[in-house]
Amino acid sequence: MLGLSTALMLSAALLYHWVFLKGAREGWPVVSTLVRFVVRDEMEQQDRFMRENLDAMARKVGEMQAKLVQLEALGERVSGLAGLNPAEIRATPGRGGALVSGRPLSMEELKATLADLDELTDHRADVLTVAESRLFDQKVRKSMIPTQHPVSVGHLGSSFGWRIDPFTGRSALHTGLDFQADTGAPIVAASGGVVVTQEVHPAYGNMIEIDHGNGLITRYAHTSRVWVKKGDLVKRGQKIAEVGTTGRSTGPHLHFEVLVDGIPQDPQKFLNAGAGLAEASAQRAARR
């Protein structure tokens, strides 16, 4: 009995299939309508699937375009800190080669490609962010090194080192540089920092000390007039005082010292380094 039922079901299925195919080929109205309905429904599903995927990819492309704009801005900041020309960073490199035909990408392959590109963009953004942070830190540190001449007029008198003291006539260590200049000539900060001392000293006269961080301090002595006070934040090249002859001095000049952890250093080494940096910067600018 079970075998007979199965045989009847298979026969009915085959008959239905044959009738359906015959009706589809010969254009029977009922069958044609059913075929169009099935085909239309399938096409609508495919169309809906494509629209949804295209919308998703459009959003992804929009996100990537926004990231690329951010990367370009970040690249310009990094190149500026590194002293590079941003136009060279943005330039599109030349490309070429023989055309090799390939097959179209499937939807899944296109999604995978976009995902890989998105991950690569994020990675490069992270790298550029770290580079920007480090370059900015280096720039700040360089800006705190006293490399600018504190007096732009006059000439160098006594250098750093041992000399004959003008008052005692004996050998003594001269702990700075003496810049000979007229009374009232402007004195500027050799670097940015905070004024930690502004006082009248028995030997240094009207004296200013600026803390540049990391144990680095510059001292400006024998000034006639002071333009800053303790606690002021000063910038490189800012006028802080005027040349004078106060304190233990034989004539108008600036006594300039550089101290590292309280130990006097030769200021000329710092000023020479500043001249070298300025020359290198000018050469880079000329090449652009």
Shape type: rod-shaped
User: The CATH topology of the largest domain, please?
Assistant: Glucose Permease (Domain IIA)
Q: Report the helical percentage.
A: 40-55%
Mean pLDDT: 75
Low-confidence stretches: none
- State the fourth-level CATH superfamily of the largest domain: Glucose Permease (Domain IIA)
At the first level of CATH, what is the class of the largest domain?
A: Mainly Beta
- What is the helix/strand order? HHHHEEEEEEEEEEEEH
- How widely separated are the two ends? 96 Å
User: What is the structural class?
Assistant: alpha+beta
Tell me the major beta sheet: 10 strands, antiparallel
Q: In what range is the share of β-strand residues?
A: 15-25%
Write down the oligomeric state: single chain
What CATH architecture of the largest domain do you see? Distorted Sandwich
How many domain modules? 2
Number of strand segments: 12
**Radius of gyration (Å):** 40 Å
Number of helices: 5
In words, what does this structure look like?
With 288 residues, the chain is α+β, with helices and mostly antiparallel strands. It has two domains: 13-82 and 108-143; 155-268, Glucose Permease (Domain IIA) (Distorted Sandwich), CATH 2.70.70.10. Helices cover 49% and strands 22% of the residues. It contains five helices and twelve strands. It has helices at 2-26, 29-82, 86-90, 107-143, 267-287; strands spanning 155-156, 161-164, 171-174, 177-180, 186-188, 193-201, 205-213, 216-226, 233-234, 239-243, 253-260, 263-265. Strands 1, 4, 5, 6, 7, 8, 9, 10, 11 and 12 form a ten-stranded antiparallel beta sheet that branches. A two-stranded antiparallel ribbon has the order 2-3. Strand 11 (253-260) and strand 12 (263-265) form a beta hairpin. Helix 2 (29-82) packs parallel to helix 4 (107-143). The longest helix is centred in the first third of the chain and has 54 residues, at 29-82. It is rod-shaped and about 120 Å long. The termini are far apart. 17% of the residues are buried. The mean pLDDT is 75.
